[in-house]
Amino acid sequence: xxxxxxxxxxxxxxxxxxxxxxxxxxxxxxxxxxxxxxxxxxxxxxxxxxxxxxxxxxxxxxxxxxxxxxxxxxxxxxxxxxxxxxxxxxxxxxxxxxxxxxxxxxxxxxxxxxxxxxxxxxxxxxxxxxxxxxxxxxxxxxxxxxxxxxxxxxxxxxxxxxxxxxxxxxxxxxxxxxxxxxxxxxxxxxxxxxxxxxxxxxxxxxxxxxxxxxxxxxxxxxxxxxxxxxxxxxxxxxxxxxxxxxxxxxxxxxxxxxxxxxxxxxxxxxxxxxxxxxxxxxxxxxxxx
Length: 289
Fold this sequence. Notes:
By secondary structure, this protein is an alpha+beta fold. The chain is built from eight helices and 16 strands. The longest helix is centred in the N-terminal third of the chain and has 14 residues, at 68-81.
């Protein structure tokens, strides 16, 4: 059981497909000797104010009530202030929470938070920008960019975006540099996996671990459209790593040259230049789970 008593919850009520009732649940089960603070993330442009408010707090634990993007936002503050990260999953995919086996039911997740031990897990970065679950370039980064427009949310909103794009996406050429090797690959997408899945039990890297000091670099090769459904089936049955269209490298660092464009970090899109440096930071962040 952890000894933390001062906890700040950052609640993202628009994360995922439903409003959060986290505050009501917290007040129902809150032990008397705990001090809880709440911040509600109402608008995307509130980041600077949220950072100021969080920096003023003396909370020992910062808890993301939201999806992987909310976790990502808090993680940088946790790292900077040497605090502890907590997770109450309330997002569209909840990739990291699922990987860490945190209950998706809020009440169960809160109860787990109050009794679980602190563990250290790996963090990864792309050009100095952190991610905890997955990052990527190519098709999934483009979908992340379009999904962020918020005209559709949730799992089926994501599926709709994928179907609309999968039939007209052109694979790109990537130049990969790692160790003493330099290779060129034509790829549909390249995913950098610290954890095993994107979310919704879509396992891009079934063997990935957040505690091994390595990244799984998942290179999806061009495939005939007739194979789209079998590949999707493998994605949701933890067998994509067995497909001949997926090549996986296990590395602590890799550099990639490609055309400038979108990169997703834990599902959130960013525009980056053509040169990317991706690396793992072993046991960098403290998480309660």
